[in-house]
Amino acid sequence: MLRFIVRRLLLLVPILIGLSILIFFWIHALPGGPAQALLGERATPEAVAQIRHDLGLDKPIYEQYWAYVRTTAEGNLGVSISSRRPVTTEIRERFPATVELTIAAMIFALSLGIPLGFYAAKRHGSAFDHASLVGSLIGISIPIFFLAIILKYIFAVRLGWLPSIGRQSVLINAEHPTGFYVLDGIVTGNWNAAWDAVQHLILPAIALGSIPLAIIARITRASALDVQNEDYVRTARAKGMSPGIVDRRHVMRNALLPVVTIIGLQFGLLLGGAVLTETVFAIPGMGSWLAQAIFNRDYPVIQGGVLFLAIVFVMVNLIVDLSYGFLNPRIRVS
Amino acid sequence: MGRKLKFSLVVVVASLALVAAAGAALKSNKATTTLVFGASADPVILDGPLVSDGESLRPISIIFQGLVSLKPGTTTIVPQLATSWSTSKNGLNWTFNLRQGVKFTDGTPFNAAAVCFNFNRWWNFPGPLQNPSVTYYWNTVFGGFHHPATGSPGPDKALYKGCKTAGQNTAIIQLTRKSGGFLGSLALSVFGMASPTALVKYKADAGTVTPDGVFQPTGTFGTQHPVGTGPYMFKSWKIGDKLVLVKNPTYWGNASSPSWSRSGKVDQLIFVPIPDNAARLQALETGEIQGYDNVAPQDIPTVRGNSGLKLVNRPPFNVAYVGINQSKPPMNNILVREAVAYGLDRAGVVNAFYGGRGQQTNQFLPPQLFGYAKTGVPSYPYDPDKAKALLQQAGLTLPVKVDFWFPTNVSRPYMPDPASNFQAFQASLEKSGFKVTPHSEPWRPNYLGDVQSGNAQLFLLGWTGDWGDPSDFLNVHFGSETPQFGFNNPALFALLKAADAQTDLDKRTALYQQASVAVMKFLPVIPYVHSTPALAFKSNVNGFIASPVGLDPFWLVSFGK
Q: B36 CB near a chain A CB, below 8 Å?
């Protein structure tokens, strides 16, 4: 097990080197630069030249890349050109928002997707099964930003039930020791703040979780259909085991294996989908931050942010791989 | 019913209960003495001279005050921390008599020494802070630094020479040359007075330059301790979340002071960053914010149609124009430029694409600005026949080919829909003896760079003024030879230089009116519209007066029914 983990972590090194090269040369190949974003109409050729000089953008590209590698190797991801704040500080402040949103979306997707998929498999061919298929197709097809806007319009604007922006109401004074607002409210005993943060998560989580919900429901259904026809399930039933125990111990546990794989992949996709969700709901997370950085040609932010997300993505998939062994003792890593 | 289905139903019911409870909780969160305003981004830093973006300047103009200010809703210069001023006969020394009894919010006194401390801080900015992306306005207005870094302008190019005190309450600013625009530029909130004690204590200028050349401030003046003399003072700022300002309890003004120095009405101002236009509108509709700036043109009917909301117009202080590069023949011929002017259906474009929020113009300066010429401006109404006749008079064979550039993927305050503007102009020019070759390019990254480098023959562009002075419009564009416009007109350059140097307002106005007419005779551009940006508020927000230059007096805001 340890060797497996070490090997996977070592694999991170070439992945990150390759990724850093790709990101660096990709963003530097784009025309334009940060000067235009900073000064707009006032970006005279002289000002652009001065800014390029001060940022070292007039140096040969290999020199720029070497400076970037050197500082990154020291754990320094640079300073944002737009906000003039260290990229690591920005990540520390923004990553919890994205993780909190992603977890909320995943909780939404799992808590509905697994039961729906499982029930559809149990009622294979029924009206419910067909309805869940259509619902899943809609869930996968509907663009996140469109769903987000519709949800906001109904539940925030028309009904006034839920907030439409941010992570917490501006009039709430709360401490944020961890940056996870729900958790912060709980650990500081500020239940009002925790509840307020939960309210702010509901609509973004539904919008972001709609696609994983549909995928998880479909995968669960297909997997449960396969498993419930296996010999060992039939044998368990023939032994007189109650249907509930058969479902829980034999069908569900085995049917969840592919779902776990999907969760790992979906986590990465959710980080990508968070760009739109965070923008529409004005959540100060990693997604909206990176999207703005690409727009502004904020090179240190793009380089540092993408590299960080890549590490997170790889780590999540490693955890998913390790969780196979827990779910199914027959699978062992070596 | 299966257990799983039951479980799903429980989840759904629980969610609905959650939603209902959430709604009740949201409705209970109301405070009548807090104005929550939706910004499009966080400020960069709350230190005036180090920023040039509107989102930073908004709170800065509330926390800090300058020697002079602008009468709300206008560009008229009024006294602020200086009660009066005078210039020496040679126009090089400006003496400011300062308001007495004013204190910074850290309790230290505002006086002549504080004025000179601020000016000398800007003049002596270290190398990394001399970059135009950091100190754009000092670079633009004052032109140079005491100790220039490589590539930065030095004292030889600077307008500023020094600052002297004459007693506690008189400061004398010395200039290297006469400048009529100097006083108006001091109304820019970037030149607000900061507490010298706080600047030193919180290391305002300290920082490091990263290997990739970005200056990173290490002090906390601009992030946690901005100290000025304004009607509101800094309370807290969490980036991405909110910036909170509260009433300054020791503010020198009161409820009966002139509107530009009156004390605040609401207890606190909160600025919330909401980058997305649609999200800002929805947050206003839900009541999570009570106002926001730069309403998107497509959202204006929604605001108008909602009785709980209202629009506040910002006086137009911008111009959209068709630029002409005279280095690209036959645009060096005035007859051809006149033909372009007659061939552009400007009225049609303004009527069709500005939704009643555009004012057709006959000159480059907006009407709010002194120097706007009320008479003598040549008129170029849409007249295809006259345009063709002018082209023939210039000895050209019709149709005359022109390369016409326009930006894509952008909406500017002065030009919400560039492609539509272009298409209409293309059609009218082609009826007027021209053959237009369209040339589109995305605004970002490099439309502007290409136009400024002189690559475009005809192009759509515009400008929004920063401060109430015609030099920010006319001298910036036509005061010297540039690749963008490709002309050398010594008479126009001299006229604009003389106008800029003139310190007598009446004489200055006359010179700029003359220059405004001269520009429209020479035709380096064909201006066509001044547009009216809008802010949106809840209908119970009263007293907001939009400034043409973004110096919005939030201290006048109150809540009604």
A: yes
Tens of pLDDT, residues B393-431:
999 999 999 999 998 877 777 887 888 999 999 999 999
Taking the C-alpha atoms of residue B173 and residue B188, their distance in angstroms, rounded to an integer, is: 16
User: Looking at per-residue confidence, does B372 or A8 come out higher?
Assistant: B372
* Residue of A30, A41, A69 to mutate, interface with B, max B Cβ within 10 Å: A41
Closest alpha carbon within chain A to B215: A84
Query: Which residues, 6+ apart, have CB-to-CB distance to B389 below 8 Å?
Result: none
Measured between beta carbons, which residues in chain B are less than 8 angstroms from residue A46?
132
Spatial distance between the Cα atoms of B489 and A124, rounded to a whole number of angstroms: 83
Q: Inter-chain contact B282–A165, Cβ cutoff 8 Å? A: yes
| B488, B481 Cβ separation under 8 angstroms | yes
pLDDT in tens, B324-338: 999 999 999 999 999
Angle at A162 between CA A128 and CA A153, to 5 degrees: 75
Mean pLDDT calculated for residue range B134-149: 88
At residue B13, the pLDDT reads: 47
On whether the CB atoms of residues B406 and B425 are closer than 8 A, the answer is no
| pLDDT for residue B27 | 45
What kind and span of H or E run contains A187?
helix A181-187
Task: Determine the Cα–Cα distance for residues B550 and B541; give it in Å rounded to an integer.
Answer: 18
d(CA A333, CA A316): 16
Written as six digits, the tokens of B145 are 């630094």
Q: What is the mean pLDDT of chain B?
A: 89
ipTM for the predicted complex: 0.74
Q: How far apart are CA B386 and CA B390, in angstroms?
A: 6
Question: How far is it, in rounded angstroms, from Cα A35 to Cα A136?
Answer: 45
In this complex, is the C-beta atom of B302 within 8 Å of any C-beta atom belonging to chain A?
Answer: no
Cα angle B328-B333-B337, degrees, rounded to a multiple of 5: 85
For the entire predicted model, the pTM comes to 0.81
**Residue B324: alpha-carbon gap to chain centroid:** 24
Instruction: Report residue B42 as tokens.
Output: 């966080």
